[in-house]
Amino acid sequence: MSALRRADYAVAIVGAGIIGLYTAYHLARAGVGPILVVDRGFLSSGASGRNGGGVRQQWETRATVRLARESVDAYRHFGREFGYNIWFRQTGYLFLAETDADLRRLRPVHDLVRSEGLRSVVLDEAGVRRYLDGIAPGAVVGGTYLATDGTLYPFPAIWGLYEAARALGVEVALGVEALGVSRDGGKVTGLPTSRGTVALTKVVNAAGGWSGSTSPTTPRGTRSWRANR
How far apart are CA 39 and CA 226, in angstroms? Predict the structure, then answer.
């Protein structure tokens, strides 16, 4: 990876996965800039490229349900907006309950999802069999199902966002590791990276499962994490 193009940015985003690139894209569309996205790996080398493409809105917190619902709407229009077919198929998402206790744990999630206007349904064993044939008799007592959930191919989604963000002037630096966040008096002042430190006042941590990891070699006065995507 060559040196970063600038010594200062308006904002840096750590992690070039689906969250990081979508964030960069929307910030750039809003007129924020210059924007830097760093990732220590290659495109799709993190969680956004190591998943089955499941898209669901059945979550335990209201904020997450709302974010997931907006994501589904974005994925439905992704092809028209970015010119890449992500093969988003709303074939539904089924959670199975092997015991009555499992089913009781699923009900609060179902109630929350319903309260947000999504048509989650609670199924008994016969209802599960309508969606999942071949399951062993007595293997489950029921489950919850939401028909507007589904699956997509993550790779064209990542590539479409990558190309769109770069077209808006976002610098995406792959193979560049964020080493922490420099602060002075509680305010962000810079981002130390494996390619040098850049000056800025805002950093978005979109490193996913690596967001809280710390680096063993971090410059003094720097709050650190081991950044990935």
Answer: 11
pLDDT band at 210 (very low <50, low <70, confident <90, very high): confident
Beta bridge partners of 171: 36
Among residues of the chain, what percentage have pLDDT more than 90? 83
Q: Are 123 and 106 in contact (CB under 8 A)?
A: no
Q: Which of 98, 122, 150 is the last residue of a domain?
A: 150
Residue 134 pLDDT grade (very low, low, confident, very high; cuts 50, 70, 90): confident
Q: Which of 120, 150, 180 is the last residue of a domain?
A: 150
What is the model's pTM?
A: 0.86
Number of domains in the chain: 2
Number of H helices, E strands in the chain: 6, 13
